[in-house]
């Protein structure tokens, strides 16, 4: 997209940053990966999905847009499905949010 007015471009970039910040806040709150797994989900973070490595380049609601190395276009990935995140201590697999309605296996 091209902009004739630099102010329009600046406003569009600001809207994109606000959307990304809101999406990342929702992801952090809903999935709780930092608290549960020690994972901070952020733009520029390195990830592996099904063994392919890439970098988080954007958000799409509660999903992530990942540019995999050697790919031509970014892919949309679920935050926890087959996803690993690089942390200071190494690669950590994201785990799904526990289902509060799932039967307790200990009660069976």
Tell me what the structure shows.
The protein has 108 residues and is of the alpha+beta class. It has one domain (6-107). It has a six-stranded antiparallel beta sheet. Helix content is 29%, strand content 30%.
- Number of H/I helices: 2
Order of helices and strands, N to C?
A: HHEEEEEE
Provide the gyration radius in Å: 17 Å
Largest sheet data:
6 strands, antiparallel
User: Kindly state the mean pLDDT as a whole number?
Assistant: 90
Biggest sheet strand line-up: 4-3-2-1-5-6
How much of the sequence lies in strands comes to: 25-35%
- Helix percent reads 25-40%
The count of domains is: 1
What is the strand tally? 6
* Poorly predicted residue ranges: none
Task: Please describe the topology of this protein.
Blueprint: H1 6-31, H2 33-37, E1 46-49, E2 52-60, E3 63-68, E4 75-78, E5 83-87, E6 90-93
Task: Label this structure with key terms.
alpha+beta, 30% strand, 108 residues, 29% helix, 6-stranded antiparallel β-sheet
